[in-house]
Amino acid sequence: MTFVDKYLLSHWGFDPIFFILTGIPVVLYVIGYRRLEATIARGSKRSPKRRRLNALIFGSGIAILVLAVMSPVDYWSDTYFWVHMFQHVMLMVYAPALIVISAPWLVIYRGLPVKWRRSLGRTFLVSEQTSILRSIGNFFMNPVFGFLFFNVDMYFWHFPAVLDLAERNQVVHNFMHFFFVVSGMLLWIHLVDSHPIRPRIYPEIKRIVPIFFTTVLSWILAMIMGFASVPFYSVYLHIPGKTLSGMADQELGSAVLWVLCMEPFTYAAIYNIRKWMSREADFDYELEKLTTKSSNNKVKKRIPGLS
CA-CA distance, 157 to 179, in Å (whole number)? Predict the structure, then answer.
C-alpha cells in the first residue's frame, strides 16, 4: 500500500449525525444564495465578487469540518496524539473562523420558506413571550462569555482523564467536537465583523485583548504538554504498530497547538489594527474638513505617515 493510499485515500468515515448538522446549513445556504442572486440580478449592478468570495469562505469552513471529522484525520487521531491536536485546532479555530468571516447568517435565513422566516421573525424578535429567549441569547453573545467559554473548553477537554474518556467513548467524543465548534464560533463572532451581527467589542483595537490572552493561554497549554517529563494521555501508549513514543507524540502535538493556533489569531489582530487605523485616519480627515475656516482652500486628504 502506497503512502497516498494508506494516509489519504483509506479510512474515510461517515457520521450521519454530523452529516445532518452540517448538511442542513449548507442546503439552506445554497438555496438562500440562489434566491439572493436572482433578486439582485433583477435590479442591481453591484459586483457579485464579494458574495462569491463569502460563499467560497463558507464552503472552506464546512470543508474543514468534514475533513476533521470524516477524513483519515479522524482515523489517525486515535493512534497519534499530534494528529488529534491537529484535528482539535481545525475544529476550534480554523473552521469557526472561516464560517464567521463568511457572514452566512442572512443567506441561510433567506434559504428558509417565506412563512417560516416571518414566523421566526415575529417569534424571536418581537413577541414578548420569547423575551427570555432573547435574554439567554444576549448572555451567550456576551464577549466575556465567549472568551471564557472558549478557553475553559480548550483546557477542560485536554485534561488527561477527560481526553482519555473521550477517546474511549464515542458519545463523549462527539460532544467534545460539538463544543469545540460552538465555543470557537462564540469567540470569533467578537473578533471579526460578521454582518448583520453587530460586534460587541468596539472600537476594533479593543479586540486585541481577547486575541492576545487567548493566544497566550494556548501557548501555556502547549508548554504544559511539551515540557512535561512524562506523557499525560495513557490512551496513546502501547498502541500496536505505533513507532512514535508517547512523549515524542505529545511534544509534537504541543508544537501543533502552539504554531497552528497562533497563526489565525495573528491575522485577526492585524485585521483589527489595520481597520482601526484606517477608520481613525478617515475620522481625522473629516474632522479637518469640518474645522477648516477657509472655504476657498481645498482640503487635500492627508495620507497617514506622509504628512
Answer: 10
What's the pTM? 0.86
Rounded CA separation 255/297 (Å): 59
Q: Are 138 and 186 in contact (CB under 8 A)?
A: no
End-to-end CA distance of the chain: 65
The span from the CA of 61 to the CA of 26, in Å, is 11
Contacts of 62 (CB under 8 A, 6+ apart): 22, 25, 26, 95, 99
Q: What is the dihedral of CA 288, 290, 291, 297, to 10 degrees?
A: 80
Q: Which residues pair with 207 in a beta bridge?
A: none
- Confidence class of residue 307 from pLDDT cuts 50, 70 and 90? very low
Residue type, 136: I
Question: Strand, coil or helix: what is 194?
Answer: strand
**CA dist., res. 38 & res. 276, Å (int):** 35
Distance CA 25, CA 62 (A): 10
8 Å CB contact between 55 and 102 = yes
Residues β-bridged to residue 194:
197
The Cβ of residue 26 has, within 10 Å, a number of other Cβ atoms equal to: 16
Domain boundaries, the chain: 10-117+156-282
84/76 Cα distance (integer angstroms): 8
Q: Is 135 helix (H, G, I), strand (E, B) or coil?
A: helix
73-93, pLDDT tens digit by residue?
998 898 999 999 999 999 999
Q: What does the DSSP 8-state code read for residue 300? A: P
Tell me if 145 sits within 8 A of 186, measured CB to CB.
yes
